[in-house]
Amino acid sequence: MLQAILHGKAGRIDGDKVQSISWREVFKGREDLMTAAVFGRFAYLSAPVQATLMQRWLGVTEPAFDDFEKIDFWPSYQLVSNDQKRRVEPDVVLNFASATVILEIKPPNGGDQDIDQWQREVESFLLSGERSQLPLFFLAIGRIPNKFVFGNWAKQLSKKLDGINAVAWQRVVNDLLELDNGKLACEPNTQDKRIIADILQTAGLYQLRTQFYSWKTLLDHPLPRLSLQQALLRDKPPPKAPVQPEPQPFSATQAPHSWHDLAAFATAHPISLKDISTWNK
C-alpha cells in the first residue's frame, strides 16, 4: 500500500457529501499511518542498527538496545483517576530484553506534543505492572516543545523513568541518512539499506529533507569554468541600419534582449548608495 501511495497508484477516496481526496493526503493527515509505516519497518532492522538509532534518539549509551524482542502498536492500558477509569493508548511500545521504550509520535503537520498525554501514558503503563523489572524510557518524536519547556516536562517525569528525550522528525531522518551513507560507527547491511530507503521515502511525503546537501557535495561536482570569453556571453553586433533606434526601457522583471540593452539602461538610470539605503527601509 505504501508503494502505491508513493507512486500515485492508490487512487482517491470518494465521499457522498465531500470532494474526493487522494490516499496520499489521507496518509499525510493521519499520525497512526506514519507511525505504522516508520516503526513497522524498524522491527526488521538488524540489531546493531536498532541499537545505534535508539541510543542516538534517547541520548544514552546504556543499555545497549541490541536485544529487540517485539513491538506493540497502540497497546491499551487502564488508568484510574478520581475513581474514574479510562483507557490510554501510547502509539508504540518497543520491547527489548533489557529495557522498554514508550513512543509518542506526532507527524510534522499534526498536533503538538502534550505533557498531560505523556503523564497518562507513563502512569498507565506503570500501573499495568508489565515488565516492571526493566528500565523504562520515554521518547517523543515530532512536534516537540522548545528546550526550556521540554526540560520542565522531563523533570516532572524523571522520577518515574530511567530516561526521556524528544526529537524532531528531521533529526530522525538525518540519523537515517548518516547511517545509510556510512557516517556512523554501525555499518548497515543490504536489508537495512532497503528498509531505510522505504522509511526515507515515507519521510519525503511530509516534505522532510531526505538528501544531504553540503559544500563538499558542491565541490565534488564542480561546474565548468566561465569567463567573459565564454561563447554564450559573446554578444553579436547589432545589425547595420540607417538609423539606430533608441534603446527600449529595460525592466528588472524581464530578461534583456542583449548586453547592449542592459548597458544602455544602466547608463541612463544610475543609482547611488542613497537610493539603496532608501530601498532597505
What does this structure look like?
The chain has 2 domains: 2-204, no CATH class; 247-281, no CATH class. By secondary structure, the chain is α/β, with parallel strands linked by helices. The longest helix has 15 residues, at 190-204. Helices cover 40% and strands 15% of the residues. The protein has helices at 2-6, 23-29, 31-42, 47-58, 115-128, 147-157, 169-180, 190-204, 215-220, 259-268, 273-279; strands at residues 12-13, 21-22, 68-73, 77-81, 84-88, 92-96, 100-105, 136-141, 163-167. The strands form 3 sheets. Strands 3-6-7-8-9 form a 5-stranded mixed sheet, sandwiched between helices. A hairpin with a 2-residue loop joins β4 and β5 (84-88).
Could you give the order of the helices and strands? HEEHHHEEEEEHEHEHHHHH
Our count of helices gives 11
Question: In terms of structural class, how would the helical and strand content be classed?
Answer: alpha/beta
Strand content: 5-15%
**Average pLDDT value?**
83
